[in-house]
Amino acid sequence: MDLLAAWLLYPLTLACLCLGLALALERLTDWRTPGALMLPVGFVALIVLARLITSYESTAPLALPVIGVLALAGLGLGRRRLLALRPDPWAIVAVGGVFALLAAPVVLSGTPSFAGYLALPDTSHQLALAAHFPHHGPDWAGLPDGSNRATIVKYVTSSYPIGGQVALGVTAPLGALDMAWLYQPFLAFAVIVLSLVIWSLSAPLLARRWQAALVTFAASQPALLIGNYLLGSIKEITAIAVLMTLIALVALAITERRPARSLLPVALAAAAALLALGPAVLPYLVVPGLAVAGVWGVAIVRRRRIADLAWIAAGAALLGIFALPALRTLQTAVTVSTSVLVDLKDDLGHLAAPLHTSQALGIWLSGDFRYTTDSVQTPQAIALWIAGIAAIAGVAWAIRGRRWGPLLLFATFVPASVYLLHRGTTYADSKVLLIASPAVLLLAMLGAASLWTGRWRALSAVVTAVLVGGVLWSTALAYHDVSLAPRARYAELLKIDDRLAGRGPAIFGEYDEFADYFLRKVPVYAAPQFPLQFRAAPYHPNALRDLDRRPSEKTPVDIDDLRLDFIESVPYVILRRGPQTSRPPANFRLVSRGTYYDVWRRSPSGPAVLAHVPLGPDVLHQAAGVGEPVARRLALRARRLGGRIAYVPRARPAVFFATHHPRPPRWIGFGNFPEALLTDGPSDIHSPVRIRRSGRYHVWVEGSFARRIVIGVDGRPLPGTPEGLNNPGAYASLGTVSLRPGLHDVSIRQGGGDLRPGTGGYSSSLRHIGPIYFEPVADERLPVREIDASRWRDLVGRRADWLEVVRNP
Question: What CA dihedral angle connects 548, 554, 555 and 557, to 10 degrees?
């Protein structure tokens, strides 16, 4: 049911809103919008209205009611128009095919999720912005301190463009699910808007409807667009849909010789583009603006249509009003953009290397557009050459026939792209190529279709087959390597967020870019958005920079790594479960335990913690034996302060390191976590582990998993199957098992890739397997023991998580 709500109910609701807004706009402009452009025009209106109404905190909550009323009014007034629509079956086939491909990576996983997890953390910020603006607008002064506030302040004060994000946030309550699970369907809807625009541009120019359908289907999924869709790039994808809508409207107005009154939707689209992309969109608005000024300026002079001059002035005024949220902060946005261009000229951002300019042609035979695949360089080069020649042919065909749509595409995107590529950073260049790619691929597809006459028909078929085949191959590889967020784990965080709403702040021990959204109500102090306060002694220079404690910046924060006064400044601590998770100080009590997280609360009636001494030496050992000097020093301090010694006993777990045993050559070391391996390709490992004592053991495995991995003991598979992507240092539970002393065979079996989404992509999304721990179940209770300071010798040699000096009330 959740999948239906996300991928059927929510897109249909968006479609109804957009249709209603488009019909209401028709009444105002007296211009009957072609059926294929109704959703795009409504989408443009949705972005403008959502952003305009949320410009102030006082009006922000009114955004959805106002948009809903306008849409219902449009549907009511235009019901006859709506009933008279007869969608072209070929358009339905093309757009439906695109939607099916867009939905497949999530829908075929079996549960709502969003893509790009770990590959690009920006989705977390976009979700936080989308959740904030419909309630508070740009106001952040009243937000409590924490990761969510840090994110909101950063983006609001830099005038970051948020047209698409706000449209998502305003409409999300209609989706019946948390907004995180609606994020990918919203992006898919924006691409569907793009598909409809491509149909409206190509169908009138081609004699055969099936050709228009094929052109639409292929041009809607260039490799860069699909790759960024699967990374969650909401700003750019929304901007592409809006820019293409703007060009289609201008081309239609010129072709049909519309009066200047019909330019009001054009002004709306231009404003939406500015709201979606910010000042970076201005180069793309030059050619449409000159076309409008030239065509209607000549008409006004020649025909002396003074009324049209008034309508153009009105359109310019409305453009200023519609784009007011962006114009008010335009100077700040330009300053920030200029600073980025100057200071970060060679910045790669999330890229592995600069992109190839040829990637704008729409074909890239790699599961991740940021990487190249050596084994397919020849077919890729051939396909790109064919696509480039076909695009040139498409431009020539448009010039020869004075076809305004393709001509405006070429004149808008090519000069603007050349200009921006000359000025931009390496990272910004990737966005320029992305924005240009649908237009370039559309020109290539039109160039191939234009050859479908006489003796050139066979050549047309071959070129079209190469383009469509290359695009589908690129999409299939991206589907194979998609990184989906772990829904079950984040669903647990949402429950914690609801339960602790307003009762925080809380320290969140896991490094997680998405904590600022999923735990925004608590709120939490979490890396990387919030600067946690790390302790120095006994770490040098401190736990933040100690590679033994934090081999990667994304390693979870052990609560022992933080300063005691910082920990005690919050009422709650939320920790990822695992065999290497330290217990919080003695005055914290476990209040809930989930599959993935423990929630600890500081008890007002608990002991006062006067000193805290962590014992775990590194990230693989959360405990250590107590040495005599440490025990003596702590005892002296306890006597001086009038306290007792508290400690948490931890037995030594049995550990299986796959790195210590024979393994396939393709399973290589993983630099971000010790004793871990990148899991490239199938493998079958069998080796022993020694168990010292009889008992029941909880089995944990560190890693990030996409393909099915079965881990067994003595030939019997463990009940749990590691699944879901994680940052380095996170553990998955494999269940419990009773074991006797001695050697026990551990097996690890990973199969090859299959048709499920996301079973590839190990190199770009941290898929790996680390140590397997056999932790005594009794240790999971993490009991705190107390002894008198005079008995400090009893501690020497014992293995403990930490030592404390406590004083009971």
Answer: 100
Dihedral (CA of 210, 212, 217, 222) sign: positive
Give the single-character DSSP code of 354: P
Q: Could you tell me the CA-to-CA distances from 290 to 297, 298, 322 in Å, in that order?
A: 10, 12, 20
Cis ω for the linkage preceding 505 (within 30 of 0)? yes
Element spanning 192, H or E: helix 183-202
Cβ contact 648:785 at 8 Å: yes
Q: Give Cβ neighbours of residue 344 (< 8 Å, ≥ 6 apart).
A: 425, 427
The two tokens of residue 258 are 């519309």
- Under 8 Å between Cβ of 130 and 166: yes
- Two structure tokens written together for 364: 């890239």
- Asked if residues 531 and 704 have their Cβ atoms less than 8 Å apart, the reply is no
528 prior amide bond cis, ω within 30: yes
**748 phi, psi to nearest 5 deg:** -125, 125
For the stretch 763-796, pLDDT in tens is 555 689 999 999 999 888 888 999 999 999 999 9
Residue pLDDT, tens place only, 334-379: 777 776 665 666 677 778 889 999 999 999 999 889 888 877 889 9
DSSP state string for 554-589: TSPPPGGGB-HHHHTTSSEEEEE-STTPPPPPTTEE
Distance CA 186, CA 112 (A): 13
Q: pLDDT of 571-604, one tens digit each? A: 999 999 999 999 999 999 999 999 999 999 999 8
Asked if 223 and 478 touch (Cβ cutoff 8 Å), the reply is yes
Q: Is residue 191 within 8 Å of residue 102, measured between CB atoms? A: yes
Both tokens assigned to 456? 């050139």
Query: Does residue 184 register a pLDDT over 80?
Result: yes
Q: Are 481 and 462 in contact (CB under 8 A)?
A: no
Question: Which of 636, 651, 653 minimizes the C-alpha distance to 783?
Answer: 651
Residue 126 and residue 165 in contact, taking contact as beta carbons nearer than 8 Å: yes
The DSSP-derived string for 620-647 is TBS-EEPPHHHHHHHHHHHHHHT-EEEE
Contacts of 256 by beta carbon, 8 Å cutoff, 6+ apart:
none
Tokens 């709500």, residue located: 5
Burial of 342 per CB tally in 10 Å (0-12, 13-18, 19+): exposed
At 455, the amino acid letter reads R
Q: What DSSP string describes 327-339?
A: HTTHHHHHHHHHH
Q: What is the largest CA-CA distance in the chain?
A: 104
CA-based nearest residue to 234, from 350, 126, 151: 126
Instruction: Write the CA distances from 71 to 6, 67, 478, 747, integer angstroms.
Output: 21, 6, 36, 59
Helix (H) or strand (E) holding 163: helix 163-171
C-alpha span between 44 and 571 (Å, rounded): 45
Q: Report the number of secondary-structure helices (H) and strands (E) in the chain.
A: 26, 19
The type of residue at 337 is S
Q: Which positions ≥6 away from 124 have C-beta within 8 Å? A: 151, 513, 514, 515, 516, 517
pTM of structure: 0.94
Distance, CA of 226 to CA of 231 (rounded, Å): 9
d(CA 256, CA 265): 15
80/86 Cα distance (integer angstroms): 12
| Parallel, antiparallel or unpaired: strands 506-508 and 524-525 | parallel
Residue 136 is predicted with a pLDDT of 94
